[in-house]
Write a structure and sequence with these properties.
By secondary structure, this protein is mostly helical. The protein has one domain. Helices cover about 75% and strands about 0% of the residues. The protein has twelve helices and no strands. It is globular.
């Protein structure tokens, strides 16, 4: 089977599984809407952000990235599921090898994250008027952000053997990435150490790129954000291939029991 056929098969399977889990998709979409309608309504009355009309306008690009981030990163759990069930071992038996399997998983997770973020993005006219050009630019920024989020999720999943471990680790990774990205509040007012962490957080550049595409003031240049996001995707994939050890992690390790003595 060729690498392209393997990629198509894995992507189709992962997408079918992701879109069958309607409760997870709806939960991923409900989270940003709840923040916009409930938290945003309260902050709108007390928070003022320089350069934008209201807190709701400021936070909208961050909520688009929130939906994308959660959608892409949580889709990586399929790698852990397949490892537990032994299906991953069968995939790796194909001539395509580990890189093709991981790229396939990245493509599928990118598509899920892009879908969730696009649903939120389509609601932007309800918050602030935008042009078709701005929408297309935001969609392109969202694609890069979804790919970056997918790779980060894959990095978390690559060395793990159980779904329970993934669920525990992913929350520790997801929320700091989100809260230190400038998605929900400006990073300018953060303490120096946290602001420095925000500047090396790749999610910050995704938020900034979407914000810039929608005509809001941006902290980084478009070129810098594109380079950081693209570099994170390439470096993250390379690191995921390095961390992924199919010989030792395809199946849970079994306890070795001493062989029974035939003389007994």
């Amino acid at each position: 089977m060729s690498s392209l056929a393997v990629l198509q098969a894995i992507v189709s399977r992962d997408l079918a599984r992701a879109f069958r889990q309607k409760s997870r998709l709806l939960g991923g979409l409900a989270r940003p809407f709840m923040w916009l309608l409930l938290v945003g309504a309260g902050y709108n009355a007390i928070a003022r952000v320089d350069g934008v009309e209201s807190y709701r306008v400021f936070v909208f690009p961050g909520l688009v990235v929130m939906a994308t981030l959660f959608g892409s990163m949580l889709t990586a759990i399929s790698t852990v599921y397949d490892r537990e069930l032994g299906i991953l071992r069968l995939m790796l038996a194909s001539p395509a090898g580990v890189p093709t399997v991981l790229v396939s998983r990245t493509v599928a997770a990118t598509a899920v994250g892009l879908f969730q973020g696009a649903v939120i993005l389509l609601c932007v006219p309800l918050v602030v008027p935008v042009s078709v050009t701005q929408m297309l630019a935001a969609a392109t920024a969202l694609l890069l952000t979804a790919a970056m989020s997918a790779v980060l999720g894959l990095l978390v999943a690559s060395p793990l053997r159980s779904v329970e471990n993934f669920a525990g680790v992913i929350n520790v990774v997801l929320f700091p990435l989100l809260f230190l990205s400038g998605a929900l509040y400006p990073t300018a007012g953060m303490p120096v150490v946290l602001r420095a962490l925000a500047r090396i957080n790749p999610v910050s550049y995704g938020v900034d790129l979407v914000r810039s595409a929608l005509g809001q003031p941006a902290e980084f240049s478009v070129a810098r954000s594109v380079v950081v996001l693209s570099g994170t995707v390439l470096a993250g994939l390379a690191l995921a291939v390095f961390l992924f050890d199919p010989e030792q992690r395809s199946l849970p390790k079994l306890e070795r029991r001493p062989a029974a003595d035939p003389a007994r």
